[in-house]
Write a structure and sequence with these properties.
Structural class: mainly beta
Number of strands: 15
Shape: globular
Order of helices and strands: EEEEEEEEEEEEEEE
Number of domains: 1
CATH architecture: 6 Propeller
Radius of gyration: 15 Å
Distance between the termini: 39 Å
Strand order of the largest sheet: 1-2-3-4
């Protein structure tokens, strides 16, 4: 349908998931030999995939702060409430299982319960965080069109 595909992830189970615009979702359960279209819980765009291996689940996130969780490699999805209302475009998980999502308007949300609930760490300005990673000293590295930023979480 000419929609952009925005993210791909290989899960620890071996499943490969792809998400994109207009709720586009695909999965392969045989290392990419064959693909199936997944039912999307949302018709908006998804920008990323974050596995939460501690609970054998995967999160997908995107437009307007929408986040969904799957415990069955994408066959079914549950909505996860977040305080974010802007696009979520980046994610990371630290060694303790803290999940961080970042996005437009300088939003950063985190989950200390493996993606079940999220709280806002920060939201400021018009800066669009496109990617995020964690450092060992409980600090985030955030990338935007204004450069690299550091933020405690």
């Amino acid at each position: 349908d000419r929609y952009h595909l925005n993210s791909i992830a290989v899960l620890s189970t071996g499943a490969v998931l792809i998400v994109g615009e207009a709720g586009t979702m695909f999965a392969s359960y045989d290392q990419g030999e064959s693909w199936e279209t997944l039912y999307s819980p949302y018709e908006g765009s998804f920008f990323g995939i974050q596995e939460v291996p501690q609970v054998k689940e995967v999160l997908i996130y995107g437009l307007k702060g929408n986040v969904y969780s799957s415990a069955d490699e994408g066959q079914s999805w549950d909505k996860v409430a977040t305080p974010a209302t802007t696009n979520l475009t980046g994610s990371t998980i630290d060694e303790n299982g803290v999940v961080i999502l970042s996005g437009f308007s300088g939003v950063i949300v985190r989950s200390t319960d493996q993606g079940k609930t999220f709280s806002k760490v920060k939201q400021s300005g018009l800066e669009a965080y496109n990617a995020v990673a964690t450092l060992k000293n409980s600090e985030l590295v955030l990338v935007s069109d204004h450069g690299v930023h550091f933020q405690p979480y």
